[in-house]
């Protein structure tokens, strides 16, 4: 579990500190957490013999920023109705979610390597009955966004200060349900909702452009009356700043279009559609990936044991 707690995670949501008040080592701590997320996800996919590495690598920095600094959510606050919520709408990136959960104490690092094993809680897509901290079960693309929208509406009705964050894949935006939710969130002025798109430009087998193009993406969401920011989804200060600005946006939901690289950090995976999912990593491939992600020889041995 990461030792450095960036700021008082027990403070009520309305007491969130401005970005400039965060400790100077925060960016380094989050970068270290993101490296762990990538390494752990690779190791669990290796042990499982299947999984989705590409989209887990692309969202690691975003997840580390959310859990390391933005979410007012910590392991003993799972039952606290005033906690922030996070919904992994692109549920196939579960290995990255389990890894960030392990990093911040929501689950055990070793147990979380039992991805997709029989009787394991850590299935290929997150299940809320197995792990209450994952907030809701996801995997059928498009649905998580709607669940997040419902949570944001419910929190508004209860006059709660808690915020709802959700992470979508860009291919996921091809689900019609996403656009119903986008329209609904703007109509209800859900400024407690922040959606982040992992804009890695790829879906299962190919580039989005070759299947069904999304551009002009920012203009589409702006036309739906969302507050839109386009950011580098691997630049930690930029992600943190955009999340913080979203939390002070009033009257409209926020969308962060996070430009990312599918397979980020593993050179032989980057921008190669084959590494989207259902892949079996050989030991040599897992070792090469872990080394590229900064794991030491001893750590690689431990991960793959
Ligand atoms: C409703 C539905 N249709 C199809 C799938 C199968 N599927 C899993 S991942 C994926 C591609 C998703 O692409 P994207 O959202 O861009 O994810 P990322 O690139 O971040 O991995 C598809 C089609 C699914 N999970 N749900
Ligand atoms: Mg994608």
Secondary structure: elements and pairs:
Elements: H1 26-48, H2 53-58, H3 60-70, E1 85-88, H4 94-103, H5 143-157, E2 164-169, H6 176-187, E3 193-199, H7 208-211, H8 217-223, E4 227-232, H9 236-247, E5 254-259, H10 283-292, H11 297-304
Parallel strand pairs: 1-2, 2-3, 3-5, 4-5
Helix pairs in contact: 1-3, 1-4, 1-10, 3-4, 3-9, 5-6
Q: What does this protein look like?
A:
The protein has 305 residues and is an alpha/beta fold. It has one domain (28-304): Rossmann fold (3-Layer(aba) Sandwich). It is 39% helix and 10% strand. It has 11 helices and 5 strands. It has helices at residues 26-48, 53-58, 60-70, 94-103, 143-157, 176-187, 208-211, 217-223, 236-247, 283-292, 297-304; strands at 85-88, 164-169, 193-199, 227-232, 254-259. A 5-stranded parallel β-sheet has the order 1-2-3-5-4, with helices on both faces. α1 (26-48) crosses α3 (60-70) and α1 (26-48) runs antiparallel to α10. It is globular, with a radius of gyration of 18 Å. The chain starts with 25 loop residues before the first helix and ends with a helix. Residues 1-20 have low confidence and may be disordered.
Brief digest:
This protein has helices spanning 26-48, 53-58, 60-70, 94-103, 143-157, 176-187, 208-211, 217-223, 236-247, 283-292, 297-304; strands at residues 85-88, 164-169, 193-199, 227-232, 254-259.
Order of helix and strand elements from N to C terminus = HHHEHHEHEHHEHEHH
Please state the average pLDDT score: 92
Low-confidence stretches: 1-20
CATH class: Alpha Beta
In helices, the fraction of residues equals: 25-40%
Main beta sheet? 5 strands, parallel
CATH topology: Rossmann fold
Strand order of the largest sheet: 1-2-3-5-4
Q: What is the H level of CATH, i.e. the homologous superfamily?
A: Thiamin diphosphate (ThDP)-binding fold, Pyr/PP domains
Shape: globular
Rg from alpha-carbon coordinates:
18 Å
What is the domain tally? Answer: 1
End-to-end C-alpha gap: 20 Å
Q: What small molecules does the structure contain? A: thiamine diphosphate, magnesium ion
Q: What CATH architecture label applies?
A: 3-Layer(aba) Sandwich
SSE-based structural type: alpha/beta
Amount of beta strand = 5-15%
Number of strands: 5
- Tally of DSSP helical segments: 11
